[in-house]
Amino acid sequence: MSETGLRAARDKMADAGVDATAIEVFAHYYRLLELGETGMIPESAIEPLEMDALADIEVPDQVGADAIALTAVIKLNGGLGTSMGMDRAKSLLCVRRGLSFLDVIARQVLHLRQQYGAPLPLIFMNSFRTSADTLAALARYDELAVPGLPLEFLQNKEPKLRASDLTPISWTPDPELEWCPPGHGDLYTALLGTGLLHQLIDGGYRYVFVSNSDNLGAVPDARVAGWFASSGAPFAIEAVRRTASDKKGGHFAIRRSDGRIILRETAQTLPADREALADLDRHRFTSTNNLWFDLEAMRDELDRRDGILGLPLIRNNKTVDPQDPHSPEVIQIETAMGAAIEVFDGARTIEVGRDRFVPVKTTNDLLVLRSDAYDLTAEFALDQTAERLPYVDLAPVYKQVGEFDKRFPSGVPSMREAESLVVEGDWTFGGDVRVVGDVSLAGDHGRIDDGTVLSGTGEQPAR
User: What residue spans define the domains of the chain?
Assistant: First the structure.
């Protein structure tokens, strides 16, 4: 049955014009799936990882400038933000001063080009659902494209597999839902299949900096570039200290069998090891998903492995329609791009400040980013103005961006003096509201009047 499923999946991908290399990579993981591979990494197989901090390393200015001159920037931009109720590229979301993620990213890079006199190409890895909207939004930046290089390349797509028999699922209500992205580990396959990997090398570039488009802290920093170039490493990932908000997230570790650095994701952690996963004293570092690699080292490794890096499988069980829990169960085959750290001998990690890790995964994150806890500098870099970033937990009614915006018609409150904001009900906020200390809003609904100062002193806001 599964051989029939693989053949049907291959045919479906070929008919859709999917690159031949991507089909072979999919077939590799399909065979692992049918053999029962789960991608799980038991706690008994790993040891905690320690690492150097960028703050303790001296990087001469010229070393950084020289490295930036040889660097290309890739932003992962395939997400639609469906978890926040969006149906377009998540990076189109307005984040600061009427600017979207895309606007801020473009302006960051344009500023750095001017500062260093470097070409610093900016290229987006889009999905088949984000390409058109992204290119339309970037059209206003005439000078953004670097001659000889594209502004985008497309992430591959693969069929969702029916969980019962591993055949590609058909879904007539919306045939687009028959497809899914292969996870951001597809980066390397897409770079090879589109020819962009060799195009960059032929263009004289040596390094690539990759990050998520929803992380505005991920500026292609010359100091980090200089450290990476000086290290001689083929591959590196920026790491941050884990906090309470990262307890359920992935972490770095050392694999006992060969001493290589690995990245263990939550989906690769056995239920029995979840307590160890949450132990911030044992596993102290998490990935920012900001990574650097040497283009020639990547080319050589892909050539050696016939285009298949062999990243650990992530089996993702879902329903074919994510919005309909009663639709058929499917399996999505995924990989994580950070997992490539275990492929390269001599790969490194470096601890960076939390200012390089500002992901927006929920409207809780969006509230903090839009608030005065951050300032957007003249260089379009985020500057944390709050001594400590506040914890925010909004009620489910705020989950979708449209509903979130309705409840902050005059903008989000000042959060610079806040420790936490927990909103349990449906509250609408007026303008110039300040949150001070720890604030919790109970009750089913209410309104916070203009100019209100919310504090943890027991003061009751206007209703």
Answer: 2-356, 363-455
What superfamily does domain 2-356 belong to in CATH?
Spore Coat Polysaccharide Biosynthesis Protein SpsA; Chain A (3.90.550.10)
Beta carbons within 8 Å of 331's beta carbon, 6+ residues apart: 33, 160, 161, 162, 163, 166, 315, 316, 317, 318
Rounded to a whole number, what is the distance in angstroms from the first to the last CA of the chain? Answer: 62
Alpha carbons 91 and 205: distance in angstroms, whole number:
26
Helix (H, G, I), strand (E, B) or coil at 375: strand
What is the Cα–Cα distance from 37 to 75, expressed in whole angstroms?
Answer: 30
| DSSP E strands, 281-357 | 285-294, 314-319, 329-334, 348-351
Angle, nearest 10°, between helix axes 61-68 and 222-231?
Answer: 90
The residue written with tokens 């001070």 in the block is: 436
Question: For the segment 142-170, what is each residue's pLDDT rounded down to a tens digit?
Answer: 999 999 999 999 999 999 999 999 999 99
Residue 286: name the closest of 210, 229, 214, 356 by CA: 356
Q: For residues 291 and 125, give the distance between their C-alpha atoms in angstroms, rounded to a whole number.
A: 14
The average confidence (pLDDT) of the chain is 94
What is the tens place of the pLDDT at every residue in 383-410?
999 999 999 999 999 999 999 999 999 9
Q: What is the CATH number of domain 363-455?
A: 2.160.10.10
DSSP 269: S
Tokens of 236: 């590196």
pTM: 0.93
